[in-house]
Specification:
Elements (H helix, E strand, L loop, with lengths): L14 E5 L3 H7 L4 H22 L3 E8 L7 H24 L2 E6 L7 H13 L6 E9 L1 H17 L10 H7 L10 E4 L18 E4 L9 H12 L9 H4 L2
Helix pairs in contact: 1-2, 2-3, 2-7, 3-4, 5-6
């Protein structure tokens, strides 16, 4: 039986964030180049988005390329940029058909101009889609995001727009790149590593964490269903006692 049949469709996570890890190691285990793993990773994105849409999940955020990933070999970085460029162009028509809206977070000015332009084009083309929002974290790190938010708040204080006593959690959240998104209910990390790697550190404060040995290129529909089913076995207390959160 598929885990899909076991999932309570009335208790779905609204927002699922995913660290897509293991592409290169998976490819090397098959005796292939790391680029093969990245290409198969794009196929997994398509399958997972179809599964998320089937379930009725509203938001999926994918950690696509971190600020730290710029340190990788130049040839791999160039290959990843070209892969993302091709994938966005190829997938946009299907995204529109399936009601998937694209949003991108991160330091986009560091991306190649062609990729910036293609990403903006896709976001414009899919802006009217309402079934599911796909968020790509590109050239993103949580520390970068928080520092940028702090700079913006400091500037507002200096200009007299706000007072120091106005600074609270809500204000800082509003300065983040995810200010129009709900915090993730569930974080999934593939590939066997047990860390969040500078990803959505503020937003993940009360997210449920799910780690799997399955590398991203092998993570398909059923793997997502298993993660969602695991999420539904947990009690989310947000600092309260079990008695307080019982219906």
């Amino acid at each position: 039986m598929s885990c899909y049949e076991l999932i309570d469709k009335a208790r779905l996570p609204r927002h699922v964030a995913i660290i897509m890890d293991g592409n290169g190691r998976w490819a090397k285990s098959l005796g292939k180049d790391r680029s093969y793993g990245h290409m198969e990773g794009v196929v997994s994105v398509r399958h997972v988005m179809e599964a998320a849409r089937k379930l009725g999940i509203s938001y999926v955020t994918l950690y696509t390329f971190s600020t730290e990933n710029w340190k990788r070999p130049e040839s791999e970085v160039i290959g990843l940029m070209n892969l993302m460029l091709d994938a966005i162009e190829r997938e946009t028509p299907d995204m529109i058909t399936n009601g998937i809206r694209l949003q991108i977070i991160g330091d986009l000015n560091r991306l190649p101009v062609a990729l910036q332009d293609k990403a903006k084009w896709c976001m414009t083309e899919t802006s009217g889609c309402t079934d599911l929002t796909l968020v790509l974290a590109l050239s993103y790190s949580s520390r970068w995001e928080i520092v940028e938010a702090a700079k913006s708040i400091a500037s507002d204080v200096k200009e007299g727009i706000i007072k120091i006593e106005d600074i609270d959690e809500a204000l800082l959240s509003d300065k983040l790149t995810t200010n129009n998104l709900p915090d993730p209910d569930l974080l999934i990390r593939t590939g066997g590593e047990l860390r969040i790697s500078n990803f959505l550190m503020w937003q993940l404060s009360y997210s449920e964490l799910y780690f799997t040995e399955t590398p991203w290129p092998a993570f398909r529909e059923e793997a997502l269903f298993e993660a969602i089913y695991s999420y539904q076995t947990r009690e989310r207390r947000f600092g309260k006692t079990s008695e307080q959160v019982q219906p």
